[in-house]
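Record 1 of the preview.
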Amino acid sequence: MRTGNCFEDAGRRATDPFNDENWTLVHGLPFNPAIGMRMPHGWLEKDEIVLDTNSGKMIDKGLYYAMGKIEDTVSYTKAEARKMIVDTGHWGHWDEMFHETEALLEGLGY
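->
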């Protein structure tokens, strides 16, 4: 079940104890052409496949990164994601690279 929050949706799937798929949780900054800047986003990766939990679609990793002009990412194993969720009390994002973008988005009303 999708919540509409990419970090929660991806995090839930990546850390599900009943799911043996072993997806890697990834947080990154894809470019959003609608607002002309990068926005924090969360998704899952396994081998060369991306599962975007917002759309529920799987796509080739190279194509996904090219379409989103994705350069910077942070990846978490199932165990690392579980620890971050417990330690922070939220689904993410957790890395400092997102702070500047978040401040800009808040200033724009997002």
